[in-house]
Amino acid sequence: MAPQQRGPGDGAPVVRGAGAKTPPSVTTLSVVAVVNSEQITKAELGRECLRRYGPEVLDNLLNKHLLADACAARGITITEQDVTEEIDRIASKFGLPRDRWMALLREERNFTEAQYRREVVWPMLALRKASALDVKVSQEEVKTAFESEYGPKVRCRLIILDPARKKPTAQEILATIKADPKQFGKMAQLHCEDPSVGAASGVIPPIALHTGDPAIEDAAFSLQKGQISKLIPVAAGKKVVILKCEDHIPEQYVGPKDLPAVQEKLKDRIRDNKTRYAAAQFFAKVHEVAKIINVVAEPARKKEVPAGAAAVVNGKQITFQQLTDECLIRFGGDVLDGEINRRLFTQELAKRKLAVGEQDIQAEIARAADSNGYIKSDRTPDVERWIKDVTTQDGVTAELYRSDAVWPSVALKKLCESRVKVTEADLQKGFESNYGERVRVLAIVLSDQRQAQRVWDMARNNATDTYFSQLAQQYSVEPSSRANGGEVPPICKHSGSPEIEKEAFALKEGELSGIIAVEDQFILLRCLGRTVPVQQDISAVQSELHRDIHEKKLRNEMNREFERLHESAQIDNFLAGTSQAPKAAKGRSGSPAIGSVRPALGPNGGVAPASATAPRGSVKR
Q: How many CB atoms lie within 10 A of CB 124?
């Protein structure tokens, strides 16, 4: 039976645009959405928002109360005109009028003007006045920042190792590399403790001045092209690093005309960083003298506050209803997207008489730990360490990780895993892709065909690796290839880019490709040679291949199932002011909203480990 409360258009597909009415405030609704005739009430959404964001929002409310008290004690008043003038000042820094700046905030950060004034600008002004912040930026600080951003840099490869490692030891790895520097990439793949660096054969972004560990910077800038460093102790001696200098990048020239604007931008950045630090110091002092009882953080103190109070600050209450409303205002839309998806999953599971049990949850967490390399000495997944790390990294509880990242992954797998089959052809392609010969290339990525033609002519007329690398640094629009002089990971077969693969595998060492048009980009390749396959026997890796391919195909099937569930659903989202009727078409062009509850899916085709990125459910403000 359809609910009495309906959205715009009484169920017809609606997309809000110009002329559409602004949706009502979440605090005025009793039902915030209807999914296939099943209601999601404001009370339910409020509980979910509170569960995810309660502590964070309460801390913010407490700080605002403390700020207001500090302003009152000092006789400081922040007027609406003050706020408006500050918004104008901020917008002018970006060369925008205020209305365009506010439109940009709505589009990029989902901020209404009222929220921006209340949650960002007012606290910023109040803090500045109450703490009497007068942040100074010295010329030396600007000079240091300029050297970091525009000064010379060193292109390096890096291997990070445990100094206590055995077989081979760090010293033995260094000796192998010094004997044959061409082995650096392979040694990085085999032994580097940072998986992302190892996967890139040790390639890292160029090392700049004043940006990282001084020991690494000193070593990098002392090396000549092609030289290998000694073992460099870092992290208080807990790790050691080996560097290989690929090249030195000269400082970026900034002309006299542009220099003042560049310096002002750097000065603003430094001032903002120092202001944040000073603000933190101010709040630390204010908290020391404030009388705060935070029931959310300390449930045992519940009896010390009036009924219904989430906190008391200097004798003033913040009720749970106020806290819930604030959570709804800030995060209701994002959390609702996730709850709509959760309803779609639970409805479909019930329809097919399927269920997600504790055993399924545990199995998915174990799989996630295993795929991320969290393995015990007995070769079983180290689930406890994985959960500790993933929840700490993303700032969520284990409960939220399970409910918002693991459960959706398991639910979708339940709905579609029976349709996934791995064929012999799949295994053969997977073997060729993962273990077959690859083409080593330098690459330049351009966004304009005419410029691509000009760069191609220059590369053809000076056919050397060194010159091609210089062209990549000057013209490539892709950050990694630009920073690393055109160096990219070797190209394998069946990678999903048939045009690039076809051209690459047709090249011989030293040859230049044609201009490869891929979507809106134009790519040039220069062949450096071929890699030697490390595994010739498919049977030795068949089980691993089968598992990897199954995960990739399962990911694709999960995506299709997710889109199908959305397309076939009647969804009235009163909070967003939209209504969607079931569609007959199979394809769905749009993407689910940021923060929606859906499985964590890997960027390279595999089902990613259930991560803690989903639980937060929104872009943080």
A: 17
Cα–Cα distance between 532 and 535 in angstroms, integer? Answer: 9
Closest by Cα among 502, 506, 446 to 474: 446
Would residue 516 count as lying in a domain? yes
Measure the CA–CA gap between 322 and 316, rounded to whole angstroms.
13
∠ CA 9-15-16, rounded to 5°: 90
Is residue 487, in this structure, part of any structural domain at all? yes
pLDDT tens per residue across span 530-564: 998 878 888 888 998 998 899 899 999 999 999 99
Side-chain half-sphere of 467: how many Cα atoms within 13 Å?
A: 12
Tell me, yes or no, whether 14 and 126 share the same domain: yes
- In the prediction, which pLDDT does 9 show? 34
The answer to whether position 335 is within a domain reads: no
pLDDT tens digits, 130-175:
876 667 889 999 999 999 999 999 999 999 999 999 889 999 999 9
320 and 390 part of one domain: no
* Contact yes or no for 520/397 (Cβ under 8 A): no
Q: Do 118 and 159 sit in the same domain of this protein? A: no
β-pairing verdict for 439-446 and 239-249: unpaired
How does residue 239 score in pLDDT terms, banded at 50, 70 and 90? very high
Using alpha carbons, list the distances in angstroms from residue 48 to 52, 164, 328, 561, 621: 6, 46, 9, 25, 18
Please name the residues in contact with 1: beta carbons below 8 A apart, sequence gap of 6 or more.
Answer: 37
